[in-house]
Amino acid sequence: MNHFADQPSQIMQPILKSSKLANVCYDIRGPVLDHAKQMEEEGHHIIKLNIGNPALFGFDAPAEILQDVIYNLSAASGYCDSKGLFAARKAIMHYTQEKHIHDVRMEDIYIGNGVSELIVMAMQALLNSGDEVLIPSPDYPLWTAAVVLAGGTARHYVCDEQAGWLPDLDDIRSKITPNTRAIVIINPNNPTGALYPDDLLHEIIEIARQHHLIIYADEIYDKVLYDDATHTSIASLADDVLFITLNGLSKNYRAAGFRSGWAVVSGKKQFARDYIAGLTMLASMRLCANVPSQFGIQTALGGYQSINDLVMPTGRLMRQRDLAWKLLTDIPGVTCFKPKAAMYLFPRLDPEMYPIENDQQFVLDLLIEEKVLLVQGSGFNWPYPDHFRVVFLPNSDDLSEAIGRIANFLGRYRKRAGRE
User: Which Pfam families does this UniProt record tie to the protein (predicted)?
Assistant: First the structure.
């Protein structure tokens, strides 16, 4: 007998997401991508310039890394130490020595399921409600999302396009309050491709020193460098500030799907014992990072650096950077800093020629009309509707086709706006 048959029916209340997610955004995989997926299901071919996923464009992980992972699979079925495999952390420790980061020990290294997991963990371990973190604008949006999710407030400091997208030090100083806990730098930078010189890094350290701030250094592109550029880890320049340096296999080694990244604690560790204990607790709570991919870390860091072949003048990445930059800047009203590093361009549309009010709608219209998928500048917490990010990983033919379509769309846009 059904005891509920005679009960009045109850109207099911909608199940709402947590209020903690109210201001969390990640538009790299946001609503425009959802529309692109729908179009693909309808049979349209979309040229995707929206995400830095090297494997999709024929950039394969080095064979020796894959071989080591496969060879060690039989030893990878159990949990490992919550901070990571010994050999992998030892290799990371040696890499920090190559980068001249001082006094890094095995216990200072945390391996995570990609740098993304470690960013979220680092913010969860640090922030109380109302705490503030200085984050660049434009940024990699996960940083802002992780701060907000942890109950903190993201305070965006301006990177100056006219100065090659370098952080504006005066703006950084103006954003510091008694609630500021940390400053994030993304160097090399996503989405702009900027590479920070040593004198700027010293200035940022001095600001952190004066205001007792932690420096979080996202250095995931530290080997993707062009035109004989060199990268300096900010943590190598001082030992009296607390640094958390993040890196991984995703970009330098084209192994994004391995989800293998690491965080290195260095500098003023003795004053951060409680915070470090919090990080260790969070690392333990997720038991460990995925084990199979950790068997590739030692080989990656100590083996042949095939990324160098890709970024040399005749290498595929550098050729595609140069091609995409030229094609974009040939379009009327489009200017763009030529990136010194990473895999992206962040072009600007002259507002006089392109009076855009909603840049998400702009990239959606481009998708619908030309079947090209981009991410709008506001998706990187840029405050004006005048930029978008282009990934230059597709091969030269696809890049030429995609940017040709962008040029056609912009030509129609100018005409519709009466700006021809």
Answer: Aminotran_1_2 (PF00155)
Q: How far apart are CA 361 and CA 344, in angstroms?
A: 21
Rounded to whole angstroms, the Cα distance separating 327 from 319 reads 12
d(CA 143, CA 10): 42
d(CA 203, CA 414): 42
Candidates 136, 137, 32, 74; CA nearest to 362 is: 32
Cα dihedral sign, 18-276-113-255:
positive
Give the Cα separation of 31 and 360 in Å (integer). Answer: 9
Q: How far is CA 336 from CA 38, 264, 331, in A?
A: 31, 33, 11
Answer whether the bond into residue 188 is a cis peptide, omega within 30°: yes
Task: Say how far apart CA 204 and CA 234 lie, in whole Å.
Answer: 9
Radius of gyration of the chain (CA): 23
Per-residue pLDDT of the chain (420 residues; tens, 9 = 90+): 555 555 555 788 888 877 777 777 666 667 888 999 999 999 999 999 998 999 999 999 999 999 999 999 999 999 999 999 999 999 999 999 999 999 999 999 999 999 999 999 999 999 999 999 999 999 999 999 999 999 999 999 999 999 999 999 999 999 999 999 999 999 999 999 999 999 999 999 999 999 999 999 999 999 999 999 999 999 999 999 999 999 999 999 999 999 999 999 999 999 999 999 999 999 999 999 999 999 999 999 998 999 999 999 999 999 999 999 999 999 999 999 999 999 999 999 999 999 999 999 999 999 999 999 999 999 999 999 999 999 999 999 999 999 999 999 999 999 988 776
